[in-house]
Design brief:
seven-stranded mixed β-sheet, Aspartate Aminotransferase, domain 2, 15 helices, 16% strand, single chain, four-stranded mixed β-sheet, alpha/beta, Aspartate Aminotransferase, domain 1
């Protein structure tokens, strides 16, 4: 798209997430408006939003129910002092989100986004153990290739070196194991790779001393690793390990939450309930910043007492539980439940997977993976060598924008998570754009 001198000047007064400004300026993109499944740039070019912004707009852009909830709440109250008060709309949101969460996870604290939710879960876990007689438990085990947010705690738990090495040294108490995808070529089956990867958590717990380990933090489906999709048994093993060593199982469901995987949360998709669940992104369908930490109800008992006991959760944010954001979150939950979008995600997901499987005809797709409508496609040079094909992924990022489709792209894979307002005909349109983008990218790269 064309940039004005003013736009160019101002772009050099800010930054785009996780990329050099010079890289962004090669293919600049400034959006003017969005509606439903589409966004339009300042030149008027239309883009199919195949990723819901970035795993956010589960109901598409400017959903009527969400917009109405926002307008109605604006006529009542848009901010309440968090040190002194709360609001009815926040309490309504707490109730509805707790009922939607798996098991007895109904102790809810709303925040302004996923990073805040993850950060709060880490602090909540440490304070919980201090107040239940196990103050030596402070370490967290997570996975390489993971991403848990931009705060120092979330960054310490993340396993993506390039996103955190610039800010090192990291906080103490964060340990890593490899995800099952790291071992997939070393075992005869994916199931065996998952068993080995899951049991490595126990190895670390034992070597570190179980009395020092507070939690295991994992994304049920790992985004930055390429939509890593473990087996159900993987999470059953983790649950068993946590139960045996009194370690909290924490699910980072910032990406996987809110119907994408075919259930409200991936915990329900996998049939394993964590002790703490972190939510964000789709919780507001992108209309306002919103997130939440959801914990086991009984854990809240450790934070109840007299003021002089000082056992209250020593954590908060100015905009946590903002009434305007909570009204939006309520509307999103209502639409998902009333329209049974979890069932729709399962139905659409099967259709979408069948369409993405058609890309295998080009001989550069190793695998289509994921759950529901949250799916990823891995590129390889060819399906005999299975060697990565980063040149293709980099070119595909350019051609997809040229073709008019927004995806989550990486040098070796891409991901989709279309808004759940889509129908089969929209999936057809989306996959036609993906197919055209891949063909155009293949025309520009050399294949060995």
């Amino acid at each position: 798209m064309r940039l004005t001198e003013r736009q160019l000047r101002l772009l050099n007064h800010t930054f785009i997430d996780y990329q050099a400004t010079s890289e962004f300026l090669e293919y600049p993109l400034i959006f003017e408006r969005a509606e439903g499944l589409y966004c339009w740039d300042t030149d008027g070019k239309q883009y199919f939003d195949a990723i819901g912004g970035i795993f956010v707009a589960v109901l598409g852009h400017r959903h009527p129910r969400v917009m109405k909830a926002m307008r109605d709440q604006m006529e009542k109250i848009t901010f309440a002092p968090p040190l002194l008060s709360t609001t009815n709309v926040l309490l309504d949101f707490v109730e509805k989100l707790g009922l939607a969460a798996p098991g007895n996870l109904n102790y809810v604290k709303p925040f302004s986004g996923g990073s805040e939710a993850v950060e709060s879960s880490l602090k909540f876990a440490r304070q919980y153990f201090k107040q239940t007689g196990k103050s030596s438990k402070y370490k967290f085990i997570s996975r390489y290739y993971s991403y848990h947010g931009g705060t120092f705690g979330g960054m310490g738990a993340s396993g993506n070196g390039s996103r955190k090495s610039k800010f090192e040294p990291q906080m103490d108490g964060f340990l890593k194991v490899f995800p099952p995808s790291y071992y997939r070529d070393r075992f005869s089956t994916w199931e065996e790779a998952n068993r080995f990867a899951a049991r490595s958590f126990e190895d670390v717990i034992l070597q570190e001393d179980p009395e020092t380990v507070a939690g295991i933090l994992v994304e049920p489906i790992g985004n930055t690793g390429g939509i890593i999709t473990p087996t159900e048994e993987y999470f059953e093993i983790l649950r068993d390990i946590c139960d045996r060593y009194d370690v909290l199982l924490i699910f980072d469901e910032v990406i996987t939450g809110f119907a994408k995987t075919g259930q409200m949360f991936a915990a329900q998709t996998y049939g394993v309930t964590p002790d703490i669940l972190c939510a964000g992104k789709g919780i507001s369908s992108g209309a306002l910043p919103l997130g939440a930490m959801i914990a086991r109800e009984d854990m809240a008992d450790a934070f109840r007492g007299r003021p002089e006991d000082g056992v209250h959760f020593a954590h908060g944010h100015t905009f946590a539980g903002n009434p305007l954001a909570c009204a939006v979150g309520l509307a999103v939950l209502e639409v998902i439940q009333e329209e049974d979008l979890c069932a729709k995600a399962r139905r659409l997901g099967e259709y979408l997977r069948s369409k993405l499987d058609c890309l295998k005809k080009y001989g550069v797709v190793r695998e289509v993976r994921g759950k529901g409508t949250l799916l990823g496609v891995e590129f390889v040079q060819n399906t005999k060598s299975m060697k990565p094909f980063p040149q293709l992924g980099r070119e595909f990022k350019r051609t997809s924008l040229e073709q008019g489709i927004i995806l989550r792209t990486d040098p070796t894979w891409f991901a989709v998570a279309p808004p759940l307002i889509a129908e089969e005909k929209d999936i057809d349109e989306m996959c036609d754009l993906i197919d055209g983008s891949l063909r155009a990218a293949l025309d520009r790269v050399e294949r060995s």
